[in-house]
Structures are given as structure tokens and as C-alpha cells.
Amino acid sequence: MGQTLTNALPPAHSGTSSATPQAENLPDDPGQEAIPVAQPEPAPVTGIPVSWRADRQTWAANTATLYGVTEFRYRDYIISADKVTWNRDTTELEAEGHLDVRGGPDDVVLTASRGTMRLNTHTARFYDVTGTMGVRGSGRNVVYSTANPFVISARVLIQEGERNYRVLDGTMTNCRLPNPDWQLFAKSIDVKEGRASTRNTFFKFLGVPLFYLPYLQHPIDDTGRQSGFLIPVFSLGSSIRGFTVGEQYYLVLNRSMDMVVGSEYYSRRGWAPNGDFRYKGPGLDHLTLRWNALFDRGYDQVQPDHLIVHVNQGGADINAIVRKDFSPETRIAGNAEYLSNYTYRLVFNDSYWQAINSQVKSDLAWTRAHNGYVPSIEVARLQTFVSSNEDNQAQQANVTFNEVRLLHLPSVRFDVLDRPLESPSSPVYWGMGSSLAHMSRSEPDFHAHNDGRIDLYPHLSVPLVAGGWSLVPTLGLRATWYSTSQVPDLTGTRSGVPEVSHDPLHRFYGEAALDLRPPAFERDFAIGHQGKVLRHVIEPELTYHFVDGIGANAQDVLLVDTTDIPTDTNELGFSLTQRFYVRPRPCNNVDSPECNSRPREWASWQISQKYFLDPNFGGALIPGRRNVFTSTLDLTGVAFLTEPRNLSPLVSRLRFEAVHNLRVEWDMDYDPKPGRFGADNIFAGYSWGITTIGLGHALLNAPNEQGSKAALIQSQQLDPFIQIGRQNRVGFNLAMNGGYDFVNGALQYGGVQAVYNWDCCGLTFGYRRFALGTIRDETQYLYSFTLANFGSVGDIRRSNAVFRDPAATPAF
User: Fold this and answer.
1) pTM for the full model?
2) Is 61 exposed, middle or buried (0-12, 13-18, 19+ CB in 10 A)?
3) Average pLDDT over residues 404-410
């Protein structure tokens, strides 16, 4: 490549200029060398092109001396300086005065007083340096090629190869120039293979030295990972844990796996080990394992009778999520969790919603789906903590929870998705569900183990569509064999708890169903004067379901999952759905990116109800108890059957999004028989600018699942929240949320978190209050000081942040 000069020769007589004039136009007097001569620079032996722009140049053998260099290019390097000496054989370069180096394999931007470089080996020595790794120039602007730029200053900077530097008497930071919020000062900083390490370092914040670090390692790019100790945890403490201090070690196993192991120490309770393991394979393959535990030394509680009771609330919570795809049709996936006791979760979990979650689920399944045939093997475990038992001597000091455990070890299924009976054009479709399961159920005063079950469910359907009408009749037979059964307690002598019987049970029944959907009714209305159209659509649906052959034997079936709850039924159902769509005015140019003529759903409202022609469900219903059957569960998840009845509750589901940034969801079950709401849940949220406010209200009136009489369970919760800004937004940000229990008349939870972020650091303060009955009465004062792209000191983490995770599903 020929050299390009900053000033050209005088124009030729023809009025044109050339960067490489003809020989006859060149001056003969050597004294006129102030006018630079453009001569092609032959390519080096390696074939790497070199070019420069300079005010003046001289040659001596293979060495060029350039003055006023505004641009010297070699590979990705762009260099400028007052004076450059360049040897084209060795690629050695010496630069003096206002040296500026950009590019290279590490995307550097360096300014120095002088320096020497050997470009082909990426080695150099610079003096009085300031600069950044991980940036690129775009015109006059600086573009960061990584979200984690590495900014340095040094008396001497030595480059020892690609991604290999040594900073002498300098500083480093991740803050963007020109005014970094924080810096680390050290005699020597080694930068190798994407990480920086140093010893005897002083941390400086906003120009003020704060503390001393004996050793430090830090990645300098997005993908850099380095084993080592993480920033220690220092917590202001809480009324339960006391002062907290902790440390973790991060271990890189290979490019696909890493793990964190560590522990915290609660000054009032003891050691709390924790950690996680992560694996990310090809495609969707992954494995995540997390564990938390507490070796609680407990505390002594003095009772009113002066008896001293020792309280221990320690435990362990281990959770794993895994997926492995063997082919596009075959995979194994699931999650597994082990919780030693519910008290540990309730007292020490940082998340309010996880702390009050009384279920522990584990499910691992192998599945193959090919051409509509789906074989699968599943192992599952469900553990539910249903109520508390209090030690009489402890008088609420030691609390244990009753458990219900359901096991499938294993369950083998073979399902056939609905498909044409004979040929692809056949109007008759067939499908099948089948399973072979080994199950058990355990709860207080009831233990059923080694319950075998074989279930077979073939069915036929004939979809009929004409003139906008849709009619789908379905016929099916179902046969189920149980190796174990139960004897129900109909008199209440055992508080409603059945007895286990080892007599086998056979259930065989037939069913018929009709699903009728008339044509949807719709009408358009003009809105305003801008051509908008509102479309109102009404979608009715009628259903009929008949099951016969089970009778009162349904009471003898061990209840483990939804396969065990079918009963005889003769029922009619209806559903009426109204939808409102708005379509913007038509676009003249539909290909324009500004054109958005697709309709948007403003609101939808669905109401549904069932009428039971057989109010006793073939004799399966037990009066005065809570009864959950397939017929009721298909309508609503709230139990309502405690006596024979014909009419079910009226179920309403409303969604409203007509106003931009406003979303309202109102789910309601109204039971006309007792004249009350079975459930009434409202979730609403509205956003404007950087502010979001929301409200959640949940009401429940449902029969109790325990005892020989169905007592009413009542719950009413109010959960407001407000968020201004985001947790990582520059400036002031605030979030508040809470949970108020109207039944108990108490605030169960409240949290406030305030954040102020500078360019690359932030300071956070938080307050949290838990009041979960007599078990947890805790006040927490939280703080966190964060260095962007580096780490944070404090006890505010994602698990206990009041700010909502932007990746999570909105709560409203």
C-alpha cells in the first residue's frame, strides 16, 4: 500500500492533484524537501500492509524517520506522535511526543509521552500513560466494545504480548473516562489472559483513599472468569441473625462449569454454608444446583412458667434444575428440591414469597415425542406443610409442621395425541392416555405405601365444522386398576381420616361429552375522528359431560393425583367470552415501518358456570366434607363442594389493557348458595416515565381440607408496591412493597430500598420487616456499596431486593 500524505504537491497545470505525481514533475533541488515526496512503501516480508501520514520523512537504509505523524497504520494499530522512527524489517517503532495508540488485539486507547513498540510481536513499553482497554474509536467518539472497560494510568506500561500487560506505579478502574468514581492504586498490576491481579493496593473513592487490599484479582472483559475469593459479606444484621460476616470462593471448573462455595456466620445463630454449581451445555442443556443451610446453635426461651426451652430452627434447602436434550424429540428435564423442615425456610429465607411457600416440589421426566406418540418416565415428589403442631411444654417455642407427602416412584406413561382414525382425511380422530405408576401418600395418621396403579383411557372424537358452527362429540372408556384402596371415615370417628385397605380396586367407566361453539358475534364501532375502529366480539360455548360406572366406589380410591378424582357426573356448562379489539386507522403505505395497523386487544371478560343434573355425583360426595372432583377442578381451583348442589359458583375472568401502560386482572368466583365470594383476586399496575405503581388483593373463602367437618378458611391479603427508576439506573431510585393481612389485622411484610448510582458505582440502603406469626418477628437493616463491573459489599442481593427483577413475569 502506498503512503498517503497530509499535504499534496502543488496542482498540475491541468488543474488536478495527485498523491503520487509523475517523475518529471518532481523538483530537482534537494532543498525543496519540505514538500514531501509520496513513494510507495514496499510491503514487508510478512506481507502486512503499512501506511502513514506525516509532515516530513527521511530514510536511512530500512529505517524511516517521520515527523508530525497524524496516522501510522499497522494491522489494527493506529498510531500518532510528534516523531516516529520505524524499521520495516523488524517492525520496531519508537515514538516521542504526544504519543497516541489505538486498536490492536486488545482494543486499547493509550496516550503517553513516549514509547517503543515491536508491532509484529505485540510488545511495547510506554511512559506516563493513561488509557483504556476495551474501546474503539468511531470518528471523534469513543465506542466501548465491552460493557466492562478497563481503564489504567501508569508511570510505565509494559506490553509483553497479546492480552499481557504490566502496569508500574499506576491505577486501574472500570469507570468510564474522564472522571472515574473509583480507582485502585498499586506499585504493580499484572494483566494477563483477561484478568488483572495486584498486591498491596489502596482503594480510592471520589478522590479519597478509603481502605487497603492485600491482594486482588479482577476480570477485565465480559467473558473473563477467574477462580478466587469474592468480596466478603458484611451485614448490619437483623433482630434474628445478629451481625453477619461471610466469604465465598468462586471456582472455574472449565469453560462450561463453575461453582461458588462459601459460608456466612450469624452472630446470634451460627454458621450458614451456601453455594451453587452451574453447567451450561450446547443448546438448552443446563444444570443449576443451589444450597443453603444453617447449623443453628439455637437460643433459650423462658416460658411463663419459668421453664427454659431451647429453640433450634436450623435446616437445609437444596434445589436443582436440569435439562438434557438427546435429540430434537427426546429429552430429560425437571427440578428437584430438598427442604429439611419448613421452619428453616419460614425464618431464614430472604424472599417473602418463598418464605411463605409451603410446598416443595420435585419432578424429573424423560420424554420422547415422535409423530404424535409420547412415551415418558417420571419420578415426582410433592411435600406440603399443611399446619403446625406446637410442643405443649415449649408453648410455641418449638413449632413443627404436619406434612403431606405424595410420591411417584416412578410413573410410566404412553400417550397418543389425537390423530385421524384411518387416513389423514378421516373425520374421526382417536387418542389415548395410559400410565403405570407406583405411588404412596403419607400424612398425619394416614400412611399408604406401595400403591400400584394401571390406567388406560382410549377415546374418539369427531370434530364437525360448518357455517361458523363447531361441534365436537367425544366418547371414551377408562379402566383403572389399584393394588390398594381405602375405607372412608363417613361417621367422623377418626376425624375424617380414612383407613388403608390392602384390597385391590378396579374402576371402569364410560364417558361422553359435547362441545358446541356457535358462530362468534362481532360488531365494529368507530372511535373518534382518526379512523380507529373498536371491534366487539362475543364467543359463546356450551358443554355437556356425562360419566357413568364409578358410583360410590369413588370414595374408596386412594387420592394421589388428578387421575384418582373422576366421579360420575351429568352436567351442563356454559362459557361466554367478550373481547374488545381496537384497530388503528389504516395506513396508506403498509410497508412503512411507522405503519402499525394490527389490532390490539383492549379487554376480555369470560364468565362460566356449570349445572349438575346429578348433585350427588353418583354417591361419591361426602356431605359436610371438602370434596374435590374432576368436574369442579375443571371449573375453578377453589373447592366449593361440601353438600349436594345443582349450581356451581359463577366464575369471572376479566383482563383490561385499554389504557397504555395500564394492566388490570380481576379473577372472581361468586358462590350463590352461601351468598359469598369464594375467591376475589385483583392485580393492577400502571407505569409512567420511570415510575410504576401496583396493587394486589387476594381474598379466599374455602372449606378446610382437614377434619370430619369442613370449616371455612378465610384469607385476605393486600400487596401494594411502588417503584421509581431501576436498581441499576444512574441517579436516585426507590422501591417499596408490603403485605397486609386483613384477617389477622397485621402487616406481615414491608420493604423499602433506596439506591443512588453514580457513573459506575452505587450506594443502597434498605429496610425490611417480617411478622409471620409467632415464628418470625424480624427487622432487617440492609446496605450495599456496588462498583459496576467489579462487585458489591453489603447484604442486598437479588433474592432480597425490593426492586422487581426485569426478567421476571410482571406480578400484575
Assistant:
1) 0.78
2) exposed
3) 92
